[in-house]
Request: fold
Amino acid sequence: NNMLFVRSFMILFLSCCMAIRINHCFSSNPSSLRTLPVDGHFSFDEVHHAAKDFGNRFQLLPLALLYPKSVSDIATTIRHVWQMGPNSELTVAARGHSHSLQGQAQAHQGVVINMESLQAHKMHVYSGNYPYVDASGGELWIDILRECLKYGLAPKSWTDYLHLTVGGTLSNAGVSGQAFRHGPQISNVYQMEIVTGKGEVLNCSEKQNSDLFHGVLGGLGQFGIITRARISLEPAPDMVKWIRVLYLDFTTFATDQERLIRAENTFDYIEGFVIINRTSLLNNWRSSFDPQDPVQASQFQSDGRTLFCLELAKYFNRDRMDALNEEVGNLLSQLRYMTSTLFLTEVSYLEFLDRVHVSEVKLRSKGLWEVPHPWLNLLIPKSKINDFADEVFGNILTDTSNGPILIYPVNKSKWDNRTSAVLPEEDIFYLVAFLNSAMPSSMGTDGLEHILTQNKRILEFCETARLGMKQYLPHYNTQEEWKAHFGPRWEVFAQRKSAYDPLAILAPGQRIFQKGI
Ligand code: FAD
Reply:
């Protein structure tokens, strides 16, 4: 009997080992991918660059990189992984321009899909009533802008930086100084084509597959891969009057910002940033801007104090110059900035929208672009913004900052609460973005450790002071933290996951769901 027991145990043990081995081979052996019929191609050797992103802090090496030519390449690959079932560990990440901060577009030992090589959907601009552009999910916004301008049109809502893909920003929200009026980019999409986590190709809009449509917008890549999006357009202006004014007092600054975003007749772009003295930003904030009154401006001294810069833009066509100057004068006269600090410039619409790229070129030339970026993006309810500013700018960040700090309010009514985006409770909330760069080997205030400690202090303050803050471009390590982030919206998010990607194949770098669990 004993012998029988030992033999049965051995057989059981060996078959378990074999099953694990077979499973392991299946899950990590690239040969099953090599034979897939695709119009593009897989690369198994040059996968290193897919383990990098703008954040420069997380590196997860994939097993394979797919350069898709067609939508069916993406569908075939995902279907193949889906058919492997829950025991395979293989996952799939869409990689847009890889400007994520914490490995969100990476897949450890998985398949990374290089969305920029998708050629299936040639850009198409429709210039009739309700104009739109159809673009591939891997298209860069800068290329969309250039194409639309040929028709005198442009998307309405932007990000500050345009070298990002449609799929990448629609998976988050896409917020900039136009969002107070038009909502984020996810409020400006008519329809999309999606490849789900089961490899199905579905069209979706408000009317067709609407749950998938809303789920994917702001959905952190969890429900499907965006292969095409139809984005709403408006007539593009020729030029932009671009204005910066300074405030010493945060409450006055924020009250003016809020008044501007509520008004009917207002600027076309409203943002703001913090200038913490002793940083070189103080000297930079007005470069390429002209003071309206050079004599007064030269007398202005900040005396080491923290300043708040309101940044505004008004779009115009060259034939409306006089009317524009009058309108801008009227709007400015209602604000309470320090009058000696009015700085203006005029640039083309393209130059204005692509403004961050100019800084990118400069930073790249100094080797300062590809450094670690411990960024922190927060959404703070309006009623708590003064408490936040008092603590963060009066206590935590008093001496220096290691990059721009943006701060501006948006109207929640312009966001669609059916999307997956997670927002604070109130009608107006602020986007506060700490866009830090860390010097790789520094142990000082510009080093990674120091900046991460400061970020932690800011997050802890938000928590203990119960500000009702939500992270934008959120990053968490455990599902418990994700549940807390989503709050009452977690249930819908999890239901959508089980409907569209039940095996948790997609976007593993977000660390929300784990395959096989
Ligand atoms: P990736 O980093 O490649 O991907 C991001 C996530 O989306 C990943 O999870 C990925 O798997 C998923 N994904 C990518 N493509 C698809 C697709 N086609 N379908 C489904 N999922 C997909 N954001 C703002 O809102 N406003 C700003 O002003 C702004 N400015 C920025 C400036 C800079 C310099 C940088 C680096 C980032 C900025 N961002 C801003 C953040 C940016 O919008 C996000 O990081 C965005 O995800 C980057 O787009 P990407 O194409 O690089 O996406």
User: Anything to note?
Assistant: The mean pLDDT is 92. The domain at 124-236 is CATH 3.30.465.10 (Uridine Diphospho-n-acetylenolpyruvylglucosamine Reductase; domain 3).
